[in-house]
Automatic annotation (TrEMBL), chain A:
PROSITE patterns, sorted: TAT
UniProt-recorded name of the protein: Branched-chain amino acid transport system substrate-binding protein
One GO process term, biological-process aspect: amino acid transport
Top-level lineage group: Bacteria
Gene3D superfamilies in UniProt: 3.40.50.2300
Pfam families: Peripla_BP_6
Segments forming domain Leucine-binding protein: 36-372
Family designation: Belongs to the leucine-binding protein family.
Transmembrane segments: none
CDD domains (alphabetical): PBP1_ABC_ligand_binding-like
Organism annotation: Paracoccus alkenifer
Automatic annotation (TrEMBL), chain B:
PANTHER family attached to this UniProt entry: HIGH-AFFINITY BRANCHED-CHAIN AMINO ACID TRANSPORT PROTEIN BRAE (PTHR30482:SF10), HIGH-AFFINITY BRANCHED-CHAIN AMINO ACID TRANSPORT SYSTEM PERMEASE (PTHR30482)
Protein's UniProt keywords contain Membrane: yes
The protein's name: Branched-chain amino acid transport system permease protein
Record localization: Cell membrane
Membrane topology (UniProt): Multi-pass membrane protein
GO MF term (any one): branched-chain amino acid transmembrane transporter activity
Organism: Paracoccus alkenifer
Amino acid sequence: MTHYINRRGLLKASGAMALLSGLASPSILRAQTPVVKIGVLEPLTGNLAYNGTQCAAGAKFAAEAINAAGGIKSMGGAQIELVIVDAESRPEVAAAAVDTLAEAGVCAFTGASASALGLASSQAAAKYDLAQVFSVGTAEAIVERGLHNVFRYTPGVNKITAVAMDNLKLLNDGAGNPVKTAAIIHEDGPFGTSMADLIEKTLPDQGITVVERIAHPTPHRDFNNIALRVKASKADIIIPSNYINEYTLMTRALQQQRVELMAIYSVLGGAASNIKFVRENNDLAQYVIDCNHWYDPKKEASQALAASVAAAGLDMTYDVMVAYATIQVVADALERGASDDRLKMIEALAASDYADSIMPYGPTKFVNGDNVSAAPVNLQVRGDKIEVIFPAEYATAEPVFPRPAAG
Amino acid sequence: MMRLASYGQVALVVAVLAYLGAVYVMPSQVWMGFTINALAMTIVALSWNVTGGFGGMSSFGHAAMYGTGAYASAVLQVQFGVNAWLAFGAGIMAGALMGGFIGALSFRYGLKGSYFALVTLAFAEVLRICAASFNITGGGRGLQLAIEPGVAALQFNKDRVLTYTLLLAIVALVMALTAWLKYSRFGAYLVAVRENEDAARALGIDTYRVKVTAMAISGAFGGLAGAIYLQLWLFIDSAVVYGVAISVVALIGPIIGGAGTVWGPLVGTLGLHLLGEGAKTALHNAPGLNFVLYAVVLIVALRFLPQGIMGLAARIGAFGRKGGDDA
């Protein structure tokens, strides 16, 4: 059976459709959920692509969790929409990407995995009165420039090094001070150099002599000479600060050259707190200690994040954690400020006392843009897990120091 | 000074100028931001063009001059409190001296071709390691200028239009200087050295002096580009300004645009930046794919456009002068 429609029928149908759509559209408008945009500026390509990609994933998990919990309630349940841009591991690109974020209408943004990128992006963002909440950016210069739009949620190099050295002293004292000498191995960029300078200055106060300090570029592939220098120095421990690939190759070279060490005590070790390193190099990773950014594994939100990360087939790294937490901080500022106005966001962030992030920090307190409540934790690889060993209130295992002799 | 050879080249240059003018009226700041980056890189591309394009001395280490200009200016400002304008000038001078030094050392021992390219790469790498090692250069931490917007500190970041206009003026000035160089007697010497160094020497040209002078001029432009980078982003470290990426950017723009032409470095650098940005916008959910597209275009251009984009444009509606100017 064939149906034909004549011109009058068509007009009637069109009229009915128009009437229906006219009646329906107000209800559609009413049902529309408000959206608030948050920027995520990370190096998704280039040298720092691994860290940047992990951070972007962490931010996505946070946005999904917040949206699933009802969004920003003070803004009518506004759903968070992330605007993710690539800094390409280059400072000038990071700065240019801020234009994209500003024009996309973000209320604030997080990032950017490396101090050099963050220095450039936050400076560019100041022109737009656009807040940048640093997920990772350890250089103290970040918070020393007097920029009103800078908020560093995680600890800087001074705090991390101080905590790391205090905890090393605790471990060494507890073991009867077996460690007398140390070798520092660091990447030669701003992060590794700043860290090494502070460690070199602090260790003698603990009765530990720095017998070798070795800088290497990123990327760097052959660590055999470095391992041999460490062996010749007869250092009791090494203190590395570098990125994931270099860290992995360094530990392999140390094993191949049979360098006997009481401990590998990393400070922001690129792989030491990375489950991928633990999984793929399990024997090398055993008893490695790291002082790093890490979440409070006992929190419910942390466990939910760990489950989401595992379900997505990703590695649970500190990048994921800090990016998740910084989105939480931004969301809290939105909740309290009840506005996505950029200046109001800066005000809300400056007044933040947020205490419910997944990180083991107290209530947030930004002093000149630096969260003075932030602190790193000490971790140790045990079996196929990364356990928290310091501070005691977050610890999931007792430290083993010095590590048992090989063989 | 910048003579064009065909309607194709005229159309290309008009298109470039139209784009650069349109940036002023584009509502989006994104285009201005990325064009500022492209213009800053065009200066180092113009620097490479003096030696690699006009003189046939292909360097793979122009970051040496670029980084030296940036570091000289930064060290003087941060460590010695020297005025930003004087430090800027010193950065240009330091770039020239570094270029002259590398040239003098390399050409004294008769290095040319791939040997010269490798030596320049080695110089850049040695300088990168030195800059990351000494306290005066900030070691691995790099050097950072205090934020002091204004003319006195040579910081115009708050006014994007002014920054863009100044960069346009500097690029125009450097292009005018390279055009003058190209059509001068010295430029003819350089071309003679490029085409047949032995024949040039036989004709009485002091080839060593010509090549070292070209390296010094190129170094001055490279130092200028480095000093501009510092004033734009107020922070440098050894990997940023002495890294291989700078050396690659320096040579790719002219090669794609047309090495040995006045407009080639600008056309190539701007074109590649536009391509990258366009690909990034189109493929925003797939970071890194823009680089794949970028690489494909690069390979195609290298295979099918040996004279670069300006060479292709020269074949479209040539004015009829036999062996016409390649602009």
